[in-house]
Amino acid sequence: MDLDQPPTPSGPEPQQQPRGSGEARLTLPGRLAAAAVESRLTPLILVGLLLFGAIGLGFTPREENPQIIVPAAEVSVTLPGAFPEEVEHLVLSPLEAELGAIDGVKHVYGTAAESLAR
User: Which of 53, 65, 77, 96 could bridge to 117 as Cys pair (CB 3.0-4.6 Å)?
Assistant: First the structure.
């Protein structure tokens, strides 16, 4: 045994793939990701996006307590002793039709409960 030579590992040698064979198997998203990782423009684009976001955040007006007006109305009608099905047919359906006919009304929602229509 020669002491000047490093020992060789025993066992089968690992299989090496030819260069470029891994890239040929990549799908389109894989190729795009590989191009983004290898590109020098990726950090520049990242810094640019962060800068634009910071500028946008700085120029966006904010209020501590904004006054938002949402036009809405709630109508409740009682019909003592009536079951929900009766309330729906006798009160809720005609009321929804009348309220929906008003100009400017876009949505009408109704709920029938025992002795109550909302």
Answer: 77
Tokens of 89: 């047919």
- The Cα 99–Cα 47 span in angstroms is 54
User: How would you list the strands of the sheet with 116-117, edge to edge?
Assistant: 77-78, 116-117, 112-113
| Whether the model pTM is above 0.85 | no
117: which 2 tokens? 């229509």
Q: Residue 116: beta bridge partners? A: 78, 113
Distance (Å, whole) CA 2 – CA 12 = 22
